[in-house]
Amino acid sequence: MPQLLATALVPWISNALIGLGLSGLAFGATVGAIALGASYLLLAGGAYLLSAAFAPSTSAPKPEDGKYNLKQSVPSLAYVLGRNKKAGDYAFLEEKKGTAHHVIVWAAHHVRGFTTHYLHDEKVTLTGTSVTAPKHFVLNENSKVRIDTRLGNNASTAYAALVSAFPSIWTANHRGDGLASIYLRVASVKAEDLQKVFPNHMPLHSVIGEGHDRLIDPRTGVAGYSENLAVFRYWHMTHPVGAKLKRSDMHDPDWARAAAVADQIVLNREDKPEPRYHGGFWFRANNDPVQVGRLMDQAAELVVYERADGKVGVHAGEYVEPDIRLTANDLISVGFDPNRRRNSNVLAVRGHYTDPDKGFNTTDAAIYGVPYPTDDERTKTVENQAVQRHNHISRMQKLAYIRANAPRVRILAHYEPARNVPYRRFVRIHYPPRLTETVIEIIGRPTLSLRNLTYEFEGIVVPANLYAFNAATEEGAPGANVLPVEREDVPAPDGFDVTIRQEDVGGGSTAAFAEASFAFQDETFQYELEWQKVSGGEVQTRLGVGGELTVRSMYLADGVAYRFSARTWSSGTASERTPDIIRTATADPVPPGVVTGVSAIGAAGQVTFHWTAPNSANYVGARLYLNVTDSMAGATLVAVEYGPPNVVDDRTVSAGAGTLYGFVVAINGSGTAAAPVPTGAITVT
User: Fold this and answer.
1) Measured distance CA(149)–CA(108) in Å, rounded
2) How confident is the model at residue 370, as a pLDDT?
3) Largest pairwise CA distance in the chain
């Protein structure tokens, strides 16, 4: 490829060299060398542009970037500072015996702890490791989801259940040292329960956690958990994913002051106290450390600089009375721009921040300034995902508004009075009439001219109360929190009842079936009827048509008791079942005629019943009862005698001594009884 490009370049290069008068002897070699070199240069430039075009973004991730667990071969390590809600990176995902096993790495370091787990943005409650709420994750009092965690100890322990399930590929040595992780187990369910237990299919895990708990506080030198943005920045400057400096390279008094300022208490619009510069965010090891550092600097109003002794200092997010005052004798030239241009002046500042009350999502803050003063709206936006409080982003919006509209100055000063300007954030300029004891905030890096022994720097005119903020009048009201719609289960059937009905099946025979009825709830609901013999056996079901308020069973065994229950189906999801209703199947509800010629004779330990069967086609037998009183109430069934209709019949049964009373009851094939016929008193010896 380089040789082909070189051949194409030769004509242009040769024409240029001939014009310069190059000798013929050197001509060929020179043209060839230059053409080949140019071809390599073009290829290298093209490769760079191509790689740059497809290179991933190196900026710090936004809150919404952490909503999904990533599946990739070797993910870049994640670092979590402060309190965040995020998913993680898959380290293991396999299925065995109907259970899916997920191991998800949340952070590449030790964390303080996990506070609230979510499955598909549903907040879950853990009892031990079992998910017990929301209740749809529990089926038949058995939790189908389990969550276990590791905080990232230097010498951690493997998940025992995972080692037991996959001993050949996951052993006790797979500890995950130094990695904060989550072990999610999801058990499968029957197809009919899938939509009920897992309405969003496989649960997607995320968690609110308190991140890195080994951050060194420059005030104490003690490591621990913090939400202080200055502590974050101090850690980042001394970590391999940041500036890679040593702690000895840092000027700790400056950093201690910055941390103290970040911890200062301010009042929000509700007159409640909160820290001045606290927050939280997460990033990956391959994110641009300059961009990550800039995020923290902006959120905490920090200005990092190199001191005269070579150490790294920082200007805290506060106003410091200037100790440098430059007058006309110290200044060589002063450029002043009042910054009063209609097209560039900012009239309002918007803000985007991470709101924990809204699921750690990016949220719009109240607008600072006049949002719609004219038809040509001129606004700017402050966006910082490390900010997690509305008062915090409101203060940043006000600062952005002041700085955007502040007059600009360019100062050229003599070296001696301005020699400490590079190490200051604020200086005072007295150069009447426009700059009378004016405070200047330096922007950019001052430039030293060794030739002229001068310092040149740019700045903006700011008030001495730059950081003053009255939350009661300046913060504004943030947008209302959107209340999440609570998930509602499919309701159980209303007005459920069962009636036994009969149907002619030909040949003069009838068969019994059950008809379930329901009260109207929704035209899309389908009702499922379930039945089973009380004595046990096969469970049968039938699903009704959407909108229908009755469902019938198949034919039932005549004279057998059944239990019936029902449930509602909607969009593939079933409700809980109703309590059981007991009914006896009756194919023939018409009783036969009563028996006649009824009598009973007592003897030693027995009674002999006599009767004449009715002349009824549906008569199949008679039930015989005994009682100690002349009443059917409390009578005991002692025998059932089957026989044809219209015949004389008898039956002898055992009985205890004493005076007894008998009753004979005719029945049909469904067990439907006629009126009982008494025998009168019976004496048994």
Assistant:
1) 14
2) 82
3) 153
DSSP H or E stretch at residue 397:
helix 390-405
Question: Hunting for tokens 């500890």 — which residue is that?
Answer: 175
What tokens does 54 get? 């497809």
Taking each helix axis from N to C end, the angle separating 229-237 and 289-300, rounded to the nearest 10 degrees, works out to 150
Q: Please name the residue that has the structure tokens 């529990």.
A: 138
3-state secondary structure of 616: coil
Here the tokens at position 204 are 């997607």
Specify the pLDDT at position 559: 87
H or E, element range at 598: strand 596-603
Instruction: State the amino acid at position 420 in one-letter form.
Output: N
Give the 3-state secondary structure of 89-103. Answer: EEEEEEEECCEEEEE
Q: Distance between CA 535 and CA 513 in Å, rounded?
A: 18
The token pair at 74 is 């070797």
For 276-287, write each residue's pLDDT tens digit: 999 999 999 999
DSSP 298-337: HHHT-EEEE-TTS-EEEE-SS----S-EEETTTEEEEEEE
Q: Which residues make Cβ contacts (< 8 Å) with residue 604, sequence separation at least 6?
A: 684, 685
- Residue 317 tokens, joined: 């997010």
**pLDDT grade, residue 131 (50/70/90)?**
very high
Please state whether the peptide bond connecting residue 433 to the residue before it is cis, i.e. omega within 30 degrees of 0.
yes
